[in-house]
Amino acid sequence: MATALASQLNTLDLAQPLPLDSGKVLPNVRLAYETYGDLAADRGNVILIFHALTGDQFVARTHPITGKPGWWQRMVGPGLPIDTSRYHVICANIIGGCMGSTGPADLAEDGQAYGMRFPVITIRDMVRAQVALLDQLGIDRLHAVVGGSMGGMLALSFAANWPGRADCVLAIATTARHSAQNIAFHEVGRQAIMADPDWRGGDYYGGGRKGPEKGLSVARMAAHITYLSEAGLTEKFGRRLQDRDAKSFGFDADFQVESYLRHQGIAFTNRFDANSYLYITRAMDYFDLAEEAGGRLADAFAGASGTRFCVISFDTDWLYPTAESRNIVHALNAVAAPVSFVELSAPFGHDSFLLDVPALDRVVKGFVG
Amino acid sequence: MSLRPDLAKIASLVPQGVRVLDVGCGDGELMDVLTREKHVDARGLEIDPEEVERAVARGLSVIQGDANRDLADYPDGAFDVAILSQTLQTAQRPDWLLDQLLRIGRTAFVSFPNFAYWKMRMALLLGGRMPVTRHLPVSWYATANIHHLTVEDFRDLLAEKGVKVEGCWFFADGREIGSFNANWRAEHAVFRLSR
């Protein structure tokens, strides 16, 4: 972590080593987090937001590396659906991440960067770390936990494993388990990183090495396609050419869509660590809430029957399609939890949860209250 | 807020503090009244996403889904009261839906438009065309009503299935009427049923 950046991060060191699902223990865990809005005197107005795979704690605040607005600035703020004039919003970078929370780029106890010596973590491990953060902040009870995509997985894991700790759970564009297709796409990304000679078995930190930028860029490109809809891509790019009138009969980015993806890939390498990408995608692939509960998803939510849930899917999301949300709703119904579900119509594919979908704003505002 | 007369009747009959499933709950109007006035634990099922959005936005627990399929997912006896208002005639299999309601709820309220209402009979007899009325304003080719029924048809189905009628109420011109000659006089009917 560059010093200039580190000074801009708000962090907390966990008092205890963190036990992991793998059986290992992660020592010296640091969590970087941001808060928005004032904490009520009775500490009863806290909303914990979980970020997605490549997101971070800069939900509604300018990103210190990219200088871009927060990733959910349209949803979180004074007077917005998640209203920070009423609620105290907390968002922490997940462990394994690369925005200040302990991850593979950090130093292990021997003073060398973890690299691939970082333990494989799970979604539940990420949540466990944040529960420890809440404990240390003295926040017992949450008004809500909220997350989209991987953040939704964390929200569901929180509800299943720490039942009663949050009054409401809002899970958007997510799933209770990674499908074979989800795992397959992630494996393409991981193999692209590992095939880059600059990856060096994950040992690329320091010494002026640049890391597997090519591989990480390709991983991002492949993943980015899964976040969009075919119709969205067609509308945005079609077969239009990039800054030229005719095909070049070469392998430059002739098409706008190629140029766009290349840009997305390169921009990503400026703010994301390739090893973090490996570890986080692995955690997502391992996620299967039903498996944790012995095979039946309803059993995972057995303790959460008093929690209010809202599950939202998008009709053009083929990464975590509506059927996955219905699976969650079905399980919640089976334990008689008060659950709302709606499939919203939006053209943007999986990324709809981040974009301008007025119906999403209305549902979130109504549910969170 | 003034509820439609059949919904107001159902609202008045639902006991305090029970668990209620409203099938085809729309934007949650009845659920809202029941929650506020009867302190029930209300859940809804609605097929139209925009209606669901409005219901969730008012803080209700409503699931977007198709009653024709999704009711099968609810556990036996999960609710004290299951409500089906003005939806029976749109069901793919009204008989299946009725079975599901009485499986999921200990008591069921079913309300439906009576297609043997005298004005409808007259419209068909004299006009020779499928009636379009204030309460059924959509032409035959566009209507969601695919299983037209009368009060007597419904009673026959209940008898065939051995369903117990705990009460029935009838409405015309926006107010409650007596049960005398209801199959002629009623525009709408509300039945309270149990197994």
Automatic annotation (TrEMBL), chain A:
A molecular-function term among this protein's GO annotations:
homoserine O-acetyltransferase activity
Which key words tag this protein in UniProt? Acyltransferase, Amino-acid biosynthesis, Cytoplasm, Methionine biosynthesis, Transferase
So what EC number does this one have? 2.3.1.31
Which Gene3D superfamilies does the annotation name? 1.10.1740.110, alpha/beta hydrolase (3.40.50.1820)
Where can this protein be found?
Cytoplasm
Which residues does the Swiss-Prot or TrEMBL record annotate as the active site?
Answer: S149, D317, H350
Cite the HAMAP family for this sequence. Answer: MetX_acyltransf
Q: What does this protein do?
A: Transfers an acetyl group from acetyl-CoA to L-homoserine, forming acetyl-L-homoserine.
Q: What is this protein called?
A: Homoserine O-acetyltransferase
Which gene specifies this protein's sequence? metXA
Automatic annotation (TrEMBL), chain B:
State the Gene3D superfamilies in the record.
Vaccinia Virus protein VP39
Name of this protein: Methionine biosynthesis protein MetW
| Domain of life, per lineage | Bacteria
Q: What is the lineage of its organism?
A: Bacteria, Pseudomonadati, Pseudomonadota, Alphaproteobacteria, Sphingomonadales
InterPro entries from the UniProt entry: Methionine_synth_MetW, SAM-dependent_MTases_sf
Q: Which SUPFAM superfamilies match?
A: S-adenosyl-L-methionine-dependent methyltransferases
Transmembrane residues, as ranges?
Answer: none
